[in-house]
Amino acid sequence: MNSQNKIGPQDWYHGRMKQPIRRKGFTLIELLVVIAIIGILSAVVVAATSSSRIKSRDAARVSSIRQIQYALALYHSTNGAYPPCLYVSACGASSLESASPSVMKSVPKDPLSGLNYSYAAVGSGSSCTSYHLGASLEDKTNRAMQAGADAPASSVCTGSAVDFSGLSYAAAGQLCNLIAGTPQPTAAINGETCYDVKP
After folding, report:
1. What is the residue range of 127's domain?
2. S-S: 160 plus which of 38, 134, 156, 184, CB 3.0-4.6 Å?
3. Coil/strand/helix, residue 105
4. Is residue 131 in some structural domain?
């Protein structure tokens, strides 16, 4: 026997032959497969929660518009006219927020951008006989879009902001504007995003 093939006492451990050292762990391929699976699953989860967040914010916008409508109806029944604006920051003491008696101390704002909702007091001179209220939704397929007034811009009373088109399209959370889009339901890029209401 060759001295290189000779098994000596140093090769025995408690009566057993020493086993070759095996490394514990995963191979590179196994790790890459696991990372790919985790990446795919996280992408699916993010997409699902993103859709839920959009629907949640749109529901909040529609709910806020309804709350403001109720407050405007109370204001009108008390004062015989509508306020020229909603927010104190827009027109001060003649706003819905500063009305006396108070009908809505804090008018809601867009949940994504924090901007004021679009509002125009419709009428002539200081007589505000109607209003146009709107919010830009993120989901163009929202059922509320089909229930909107889709009203064109009208003349406004003194102290009011310029009116907007009920068919306008803008980024979510931005103000409804004068850029007319295509009525919903549509797959057009310029499909309306403005959910608008009138009394």
Report:
1. 28-197
2. 156
3. coil
4. yes
pLDDT tens across 74-123, in order?
A: 999 999 999 999 999 888 888 999 888 888 889 999 999 999 999 999 99
Cβ-based neighbour number of residue 198 at 10 Å: 16
Query: Smallest Cα–Cα separation from 134: which of 71, 184, 57, 64?
Result: 64
Residue 193 inside a domain? The answer is yes
Please report, for residues 20, 33, 35, the alpha-carbon distance to residue 28 in angstroms, rounded to integers and kept in the order given. 21, 9, 11
Cβ burial 130-165 (10 Å sphere, 16+ → b, else e): bbbbbbbbbbbebebbeebbbbebbebbebbbebbb
Q: Name beta bridge partners: 120.
A: 132
User: Cβ distance 59 to 137 under 8 Å?
Assistant: no
Q: Look at the pTM and tell me if it is higher than 0.85.
A: no
Measured between alpha carbons, how far is 179 from 189 in angstroms, rounded to an integer? 13
| The predicted structure's pLDDT at residue 163 | 94
Instruction: Report the alpha-carbon distance of residue 164 to residue 178 in Å, rounded.
Output: 5
Structurally, how many domains does the chain consist of?
1
Three-state secondary structure call for residue 13: strand
